[in-house]
Write a structure and sequence with these properties.
alpha/beta; 10 helices; 34% helix
């Protein structure tokens, strides 16, 4: 079936090492949208505020998948199409457990598109934190009073290892965890994944999975690569993503994601699905 929708991860995939969408990539995506009616959905661990600059650069009009799928936000209508937060009870229990096992761990919460934290340390910064200041800095009790879209724990890898082991023992079936950087642990509701969010977006567009292509580079992309009709991993991808992919694109510093779109969608390269 013809591909009508492509879901693309940002960091390590659409963006090069300088965290930019190159002119070459932008031109290829623009051509595919114009000549083939391709819908492009950005699917990232980032919050909306950190995704919007690239969304606007590419002049998109689709929903975007944020926080690894905990939020699906539609910029044109400014509507939240999907939100699966951690309950307040679970979020508080997670923070208490994390601080028991590593008192120095930094705790942040993303709630919809706002960032709350009790302490900032420039030694541990996400890409979003490099460009956006917290909305609230204060004691945990002053802001941890509502469901949390994504909980972020930042600190020494040794401390995070203890926290991960504790969470696996204490919060089985209640959370999903992603550690894409040594100093950062992202915690979300158990049902959250890019795959599930992509299913929702595709259904809203009336598309079958065979009409969807997904492109990514990390463990949090594996589900959507396996679910989509065609799953594409970058040559710089993590081993799990490479194993899940039907096709391996060039490096993210060589416009690999856009070139894969051009080869598969514009030029009609045949790619066989590894799994049914």
């Amino acid at each position: 079936m013809k591909i009508h929708l492509v879901a693309i991860d940002l960091d390590g995939t659409l963006l090069n090492s300088a965290k930019q969408v190159t002119d070459v990539t932008a031109a290829i995506l623009r051509d595919a949208r114009k000549t083939h009616g391709l819908r492009v959905v950005l699917a990232s661990a980032r919050p909306p505020r950190s995704t919007l600059p690239f969304y606007r650069q590419l002049d998109l009009d689709t929903p975007m998948i944020n926080y690894n799928g905990a939020l699906v936000y539609d910029p044109p209508s400014q509507m939240v199409l999907l939100h699966r937060p951690l309950s307040l009870e679970v979020a508080r229990a997670l923070v208490a457990s994390a601080r028991r096992h590593d008192p120095a761990v930094l705790v942040s919460a993303e709630i919809l598109d706002r960032w709350f934290t009790d302490r900032v340390d420039v030694a541990y910064q996400t890409e979003t934190a490099r460009h956006h200041d917290p909305d609230v800095v204060g004691p945990l009790d002053s802001w941890l009073d509502r469901p949390v879209t994504k909980l972020l724990l930042l600190g020494e890898p040794k401390g995070l290892k203890k926290i991960i082991a504790a969470f696996r023992a204490e919060f089985t079936h209640q959370i999903s965890m992603v550690q894409t950087e040594g100093f950062l642990l992202q915690v979300m509701h158990a049902t959250v994944s890019k795959e599930q969010a992509l299913r929702v977006v595709a259904a809203e567009m009336g598309l079958d999975r065979r009409e969807v292509m997904a492109i990514g580079d990390n463990a949090n992309d594996v589900g959507m690569l396996q679910w989509a009709g065609i799953g594409v991993a970058m040559s710089n991808a993590a081993p799990d993503a490479l194993r899940a992919a039907d096709y391996v694109a060039q490096h993210n510093d060589a416009d690999g994601a856009a070139k894969a779109i051009h080869e598969i969608i514009v030029q009609g390269l045949k790619v066989s699905k590894k799994r049914p």
